[in-house]
TrEMBL record:
InterPro entries per record: Cobalamin-bd, Cobalamin-bd_sf
Residue stretches spanning the membrane: none
Native source species: Roseivivax jejudonensis
Pfam families in UniProt: B12-binding
Domain B12-binding: 130-257
UniProt xrefs under Gene3D superfamilies: Cobalamin-binding domain (3.40.50.280)
Name the record gives this protein: B12 binding domain protein
Length: 259
């Protein structure tokens, strides 16, 4: 929801649609064996072909194709979906696909995620025994695929995740008062939304009793170098592992990987 002076454009802008690619959480760092990388590339091609409009789309047979390549849920979420999304974003920028086509394809990619990760947090553990995260999406960020990929990665790591879309000050305060979180991740795709992130970071720091680690991610990281100082967050990264590692170092909580 628009707030705090943010503006809304009814016509999709090229920079806005480009965030489809940029806000997708980056592939996990580190060297990837070539054979595994080849499988991910093949899986990304399957997703790119299957999700483009013009043909019926069925999630279950598409995932079956990926599994037949030896790809697990982590490979698909961390590798295939981001790669397919980046290609869609590139097609938009190169005028090879229109706004409606990219929007439909990204929605289809996002629709795969519930089948690849648990809907809430880890099973079999009390809420006070697992780490919790809140993802805050900047207002008018119309493409939410990257946010949902990040949520799926966090859930696979054993984190209970909630998402807020463009909350105002009161909504963020109320959410944290009801359920304090270990990590608050702000997602920002556009430079003009940075003032909103700065205000929400200040709310977290100055207007709540939360001791949550604050993290900024999104396409905006590719455009600015001073985002930590500018927004007041604790960490600037598009790698959820870095956020989990920093929280673990600060709290003494180990980073667990659940697949």
């Amino acid at each position: 929801m628009p707030m705090d002076g943010s503006t809304t454009s009814n016509a999709p802008g090229r920079a806005e649609i480009a965030t489809l690619a940029g806000t997708v959480v980056s592939l996990l760092n580190g060297a990837t064996p070539r054979r595994a990388a080849t499988r991910v590339e093949a899986g990304a091609q399957i997703l790119y072909d299957a999700t483009r409009p013009g043909l019926p789309f069925a999630a279950t047979p598409t995932l079956a194709q990926l599994h037949a390549l030896g790809l697990g849920a982590a490979d698909i979420v961390d590798g295939c979906i981001p790669a397919a999304a980046r290609r869609l974003g590139s097609d938009w920028l190169g005028d090879r696909l229109g706004f409606a086509d990219v929007s439909i394809a990204s929605a289809r990619l996002q629709g795969l995620l519930p089948q690849l990760s648990p809907p809430g947090g880890p099973d079999g553990a009390a809420l006070d025994e697992v780490r919790t995260a809140l993802i805050v999406l900047a207002p008018d960020d119309t493409h939410t695929l990257g946010v949902h990929v990040a949520a799926a990665q966090l859930r696979r790591a054993g984190v209970s995740v909630a998402i807020l879309f463009g909350p105002d000050r009161a909504a963020l305060r109320d959410a944290l008062a009801r359920d304090d979180r270990d990590i608050v991740l702000f997602s920002c795709g556009l430079s003009e939304r940075l003032p909103y992130i700065t205000k929400m970071s200040a709310v977290l720091r100055d207007e709540t009793d939360s001791g949550a680690l604050s993290v900024l991610g999104g396409n905006v990281l590719d455009r600015h170098d001073d985002l930590g100082e500018r927004t007041g967050v604790d960490l600037v990264t598009n790698d959820v592992r870095a956020a989990l590692a920093m929280h673990g170092a600060a709290s003494g909580s180990p980073v667990r990987s659940r697949r």
